[in-house]
Amino acid sequence: ANLTKRLVVNGGRQWAKGMACDIKKKMNAENEERSRVLENMKQPDMMVVMQPFNAPVEDAKVAEQLLQGIIDEQENERPTAVTFFEAAVKNEALIIYNEPKDWLLPARMYLGAALLKAGSFSKAENIFKEDLQENPNNHWSLNGLYESLQQQKKNTAAGLIKKQLDKTITVDDMKGLPVVF
């Protein structure tokens, strides 16, 4: 059990470092962290199912696919990025629900954003709507839905989403609030 916990924590750390490299635009470091995530996924303890829930490798699959999608986006490989984000959405859907969720970062946000960048506004609209069914008031998905509706000239629907978007909490709203852990 302790080895499994260590592998899960290491996998999460490697994924987070890969995401941080994305922010810094360091492709080599990002690819190295993705390789470490893949190696970590091969460990036998990552396959152990925590009855009645998920094996840790299930979350790692989503993490790896999101990271690879982000890498591909930065390399302007949008079709490949979309493919990885779609795989992340599918794998996220296979994760058995647990409270709290085993995987907290919705993959649909990334897929929707990639579809927007690719000009697939109708598909992006559908993806953001799906995410909002599962994650109501997700600010990023509301913003993506609003943008996709605007691009399609669905002004009435966009106006309704804009009102909902304006009511969600943003980072600026959080300034000055105490941090509670």
Element layout with pairings:
Elements: H1 2-24, H2 27-41, H3 56-74, H4 78-94, H5 107-117, H6 121-134, H7 139-151, H8 155-167, H9 171-174
Helix pairs in contact: 1-2, 1-3, 2-3, 3-4, 4-5, 5-6, 5-7, 6-7, 7-8
Descriptive overview:
There is one protein chain. The protein is mainly α and 181 residues long. The protein is 71% helix and 0% strand. It has helices at 2-24, 27-41, 56-74, 78-94, 107-117, 121-134, 139-151, 155-167, 171-174. The chain starts with a helix and ends in a 7-residue tail after the last helix.
> Could you tell me the strand content as a percent range?
under 5%
Number of strands: 0
Question: Major beta sheet, specifics?
Answer: none
Low-pLDDT sequence parts: 1-9, 177-181
Overall shape:
globular
Q: Could you tell me the radius of gyration in angstroms?
A: 18 Å
Alpha-beta content class: mainly alpha
Along the chain, the helix and strand elements come as HHHHHHHHH
Distance between the termini: 25 Å
Q: Mean pLDDT across all residues, rounded?
A: 78
The total count of helices amounts to 9
What level of helicity do the residues show?
A: over 70%
List keywords for this structure.
single chain, disordered C terminus, 0% strand, 71% helix, disordered N terminus, 181 residues, mainly alpha
Question: What does this entry show, briefly?
Answer:
Helices cover 71% and strands 0% of the residues.
